Amino acid sequence: MWSCRLCAGLRDAALLSLSCDVYGGGWLKVSQISFRCRNTIAQLIKPATDRNIPPHNKGGVYQLTCKTCNLSYVGQTSQNLKTHFQEHIRYIKTNNPQSVYAQHILHNRHKYGTLNELMTLLKPLQHESMLLPYEQFHIHSLHQAGKLILEQCPGDTNPLFQLTFNRPPPYTPQDRDSTAASHKPDT
Predict the structure, then answer these.
(1) Under the phi-then-psi rule, with left for phi > 0, alpha for psi from -120 to 50, and beta for the rest, what region is 138?
(2) Using CA atoms, how far apart are residues 120 and 72, in angstroms rounded to an integer?
(3) What angle separates helix 100-108 from helix 81-93, to the nearest 10 degrees?
């Protein structure tokens, strides 16, 4: 059994584990192939490693709170939060209800404040494809708590999010002990 350059290149490039037999005339017989993906769910949900970057210089899912009624708007952006906040304020100042937050402020004649007073980063951007699910999750959680501005209230509730909000508390050993004690026969 020989080790060929093709197998070594594939192992290095694609994280493949190959073993092959090289026969005369350049024929290869591949006897085992396995593939290991380095992307895991844990990598998608773990906190970002760029802890030195201020939260308003990152993109991600954010919350804007109305200074008057304390209701919130949830949004997402791949640009930094400071730039996106300035867009919302520009819409308010130019009387342009292009964003839902600006629409809330303008229609209800509520007050707005500074970036540090109003904006909170809920989930830093790690994978752009995950922005929408995280945004939807936070919208539903604020809606459940009654803290979402009316202009953003979702029409239908997502059954997957409902499971996370309505699930019973986890079963604990203390529960087992109290259940066992209540079922003991009287002596």
Answers:
(1) alpha
(2) 10
(3) 40
0.70 exceeded by the pTM? no
What are 175's strand-pairing partners? none
Question: What are the structural domains of the chain?
Answer: 5-35 (no CATH), 58-165 (3.40.1440.10)
d(CA 107, CA 46): 39
Q: List, for residues 78-136, the tens digit of each pLDDT value.
A: 888 999 999 999 999 999 988 999 999 999 999 999 999 999 999 888 788 888 888 88
DSSP conformational letter for 171: P
Query: What per-residue string of b and e applies to 91-128 under the rule 16 or more CB within 10 Å gives b?
Result: bbeeeebebbbbbbbeeeeeebeeeeebbebbbbbbee
Residue 141 has a CB neighbour count (10 Å cut-off) of: 16
Q: What is the dihedral of CA 54, 57, 59, 62, to 10 degrees?
A: 70
Helix axes 131-145, 159-166, angle to 10 degrees: 50
Three-class SS string for 65-81?
ECCCCCCEEEEEECCCH
